[in-house]
């Protein structure tokens, strides 16, 4: 039995692999990661929690039905696409973490948020540890985000930043970024695991006690994960990922965690020299506008979170000049494309083994939804046979290794979006019901039927 006076000792745990060490080390002996070992709660020498005893609660527990839901009311930011992802806006006392690659437009978006917030008669404070006040002023003038109720402070010390919050008394605080903030109360370098966790904890406590909505900018690693420990995501209420390719103006804000709404919403934006703007109907960005149909193209409807988006797949099939045929993809998973090529050759008898195949999407769109398999197969078959597909048709379905076409989730929303944009024909797997009246449904049971349809179009033109 454990003795009542067992001496307590500390433990040190790695935030990456959760390995427990008896003393602090700079590098985890298990996974080899540097700077991830931190002290955890003290435990007794025999494994029990030291000195744990029941205490009288400061406030009594109340029935769930008696709690006022108005305490989590959303306040719109004024940016519709961002409010869509947040579930209606920001909640007072909440902490939102916005992470993304350098240069993707995080600071531009949040400066626009502060401007819209101030334009609604509320006060905002922008704390920057990365740029000087003059640099932010230049961006504000370029994007038209100057306002007397937007206060600015270039500060990287946590205590001074908290002093700015008390002095300004804002209802919204933007911290750009949490990795540049530091505190003297804990050890570690700026941006390290210990510092980032301490800064985020302090800012979260400030938001909860004062009722201020806090927006934090977070850096990401080369793998796309939020820099710092995974526990950083558990400290905040909302986690958003800001994604985009520098080669295109398209930007997407994707919800990862949301305690006040759905966590699978997506917001679309376009980044320009003069700022960032919402794209309320992004389907037009993912389609190539041309006066006449072209062989090797097919249109699908993908679901990004809950949002249906129209996307166009393009395929170019050409004779190979080398001994090994080339396979190149852009915006399409290469392993998925290789599977579709194999199914077309084996199950439909389409000779592709000696041809180069190039596959791409339009507008920087990335297709990872299996529902785009049928469109991908249609584009490849159309390109190989040099037969344009019907311009007002969409292809929705997953292709199996046996060549069968399977149904996908959210088909009703996909078909409704296709009908709204003027499409008249939908190529879908058997058994799909609930299609809009304006859509003609053509059921395709397997990949061989698809090829027969392409051949029929080649012979009679429709």
Automatic annotation (TrEMBL):
<keyword id="KW-0238">DNA-binding</keyword>
<keyword id="KW-0227">DNA damage</keyword>
<protein>
    <recommendedName>
        <fullName>DNA repair protein RadA</fullName>
    </recommendedName>
</protein>
<keyword id="KW-0234">DNA repair</keyword>
<keyword id="KW-0067">ATP-binding</keyword>
<keyword id="KW-0378">Hydrolase</keyword>
<dbReference type="InterPro" id="IPR014721">
    <property type="entry name" value="Ribsml_uS5_D2-typ_fold_subgr"/>
</dbReference>
<comment type="function">
    <text>Plays a role in repairing double-strand DNA breaks, probably involving stabilizing or processing branched DNA or blocked replication forks.</text>
</comment>
<dbReference type="InterPro" id="IPR041166">
    <property type="entry name" value="Rubredoxin_2"/>
</dbReference>
<feature type="binding site">
    <location>
        <begin position="100"/>
        <end position="107"/>
    </location>
    <ligand>
        <name>ATP</name>
    </ligand>
</feature>
<keyword id="KW-0346">Stress response</keyword>
<keyword id="KW-0862">Zinc</keyword>
<dbReference type="InterPro" id="IPR003593">
    <property type="entry name" value="AAA+_ATPase"/>
</dbReference>
<dbReference type="InterPro" id="IPR020568">
    <property type="entry name" value="Ribosomal_Su5_D2-typ_SF"/>
</dbReference>
<dbReference type="InterPro" id="IPR027417">
    <property type="entry name" value="P-loop_NTPase"/>
</dbReference>
<comment type="function">
    <text>DNA-dependent ATPase involved in processing of recombination intermediates, plays a role in repairing DNA breaks. Stimulates the branch migration of RecA-mediated strand transfer reactions, allowing the 3' invading strand to extend heteroduplex DNA faster. Binds ssDNA in the presence of ADP but not other nucleotides, has ATPase activity that is stimulated by ssDNA and various branched DNA structures, but inhibited by SSB. Does not have RecA's homology-searching function.</text>
</comment>
<keyword id="KW-0863">Zinc-finger</keyword>
<keyword id="KW-0479">Metal-binding</keyword>
<feature type="short sequence motif" description="RadA KNRFG motif">
    <location>
        <begin position="257"/>
        <end position="261"/>
    </location>
</feature>
<dbReference type="InterPro" id="IPR004504">
    <property type="entry name" value="DNA_repair_RadA"/>
</dbReference>
<feature type="region of interest" description="Lon-protease-like">
    <location>
        <begin position="356"/>
        <end position="462"/>
    </location>
</feature>
<feature type="domain" description="RecA family profile 1">
    <location>
        <begin position="71"/>
        <end position="220"/>
    </location>
</feature>
<dbReference type="Pfam" id="PF13481">
    <property type="entry name" value="AAA_25"/>
</dbReference>
<dbReference type="InterPro" id="IPR020588">
    <property type="entry name" value="RecA_ATP-bd"/>
</dbReference>
<comment type="similarity">
    <text>Belongs to the RecA family. RadA subfamily.</text>
</comment>
<dbReference type="Pfam" id="PF18073">
    <property type="entry name" value="Zn_ribbon_LapB"/>
</dbReference>
<keyword id="KW-0547">Nucleotide-binding</keyword>
<dbReference type="Pfam" id="PF13541">
    <property type="entry name" value="ChlI"/>
</dbReference>
């Amino acid at each position: 039995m454990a003795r009542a006076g067992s001496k307590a000792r500390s433990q040190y745990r790695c935030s990456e692999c959760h390995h427990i060490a008896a003393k602090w080390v700079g590098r985890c002996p298990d996974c080899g990661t540097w700077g991830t070992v931190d002290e955890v709660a003290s435990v007794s020498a025999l494994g029990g929690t030291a000195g744990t005893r029941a205490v009288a609660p400061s406030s009594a527990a109340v029935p769930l039905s008696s709690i006022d839901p108005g305490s989590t009311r959303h306040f719109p930011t004024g940016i519709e696409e961002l409010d869509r992802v947040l579930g209606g806006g920001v909640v007072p006392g909440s902490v939102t973490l916005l992470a993304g690659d350098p240069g993707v437009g995080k600071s531009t978006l949040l400066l626009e948020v502060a401007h819209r917030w101030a334009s609604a008669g509320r006060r905002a404070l922008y704390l920057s540890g990365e740029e000087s006040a003059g640099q932010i002023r230049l961006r504000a003038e370029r994007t038209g985000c100057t306002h007397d109720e937007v206060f600015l402070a270039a500060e990287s010390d946590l205590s001074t930043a908290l002093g700015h919050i008390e002095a300004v008394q804002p209802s919204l605080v933007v911290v750009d970024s949490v990795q540049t903030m530091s505190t003297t109360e804990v050890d570690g370098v700026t941006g390290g695991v210990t510092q980032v966790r301490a800064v985020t904890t302090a800012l979260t406590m400030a938001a909860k006690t004062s009722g201020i909505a806090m927006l934090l900018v977070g850096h990401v690693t080369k793998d796309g994960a939020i820099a710092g420990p995974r526990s950083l995501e558990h400290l905040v209420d909302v986690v958003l990922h800001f994604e985009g390719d520098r080669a295109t103006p398209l930007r997407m804000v994707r919800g990862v965690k949301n305690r006040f709404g759905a966590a699978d919403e997506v917001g679309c934006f376009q980044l320009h020299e003069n700022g960032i703007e919402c794209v309320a109907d992004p389907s037009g960005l993912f389609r190539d506008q041309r006066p006449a149909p072209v062989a090797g193209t097919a249109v699908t409807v993908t679901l990004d979170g809950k949002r249906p988006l129209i996307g166009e797949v393009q395929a170019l099939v050409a004779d190979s000049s080398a001994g090994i045929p080339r396979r190149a993809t852009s915006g399409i998973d290469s392993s998925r494309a290789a599977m579709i090529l194999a199914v077309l050759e084996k199950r439909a008898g389409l000779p592709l083994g000696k041809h180069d195949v190039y596959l791409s999407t339009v507008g920087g769109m990335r297709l990872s939804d299996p529902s785009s398999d049928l469109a991908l197969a249609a584009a490849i078959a159309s390109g190989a046979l040099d037969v344009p597909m019907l311009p007002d048709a969409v292809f929705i379905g997953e292709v199996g290794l046996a060549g069968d076409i399977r149904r996908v989730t959210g088909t009703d929303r996909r078909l409704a979006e296709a009908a709204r944009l003027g499409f008249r024909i939908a190529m879908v797997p058997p058994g799909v019901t609930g299609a809009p009246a304006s859509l003609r449904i053509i059921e395709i049971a397997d990949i061989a039927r698809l090829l027969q349809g392409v051949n029929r179009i080649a012979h009679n033109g429709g």
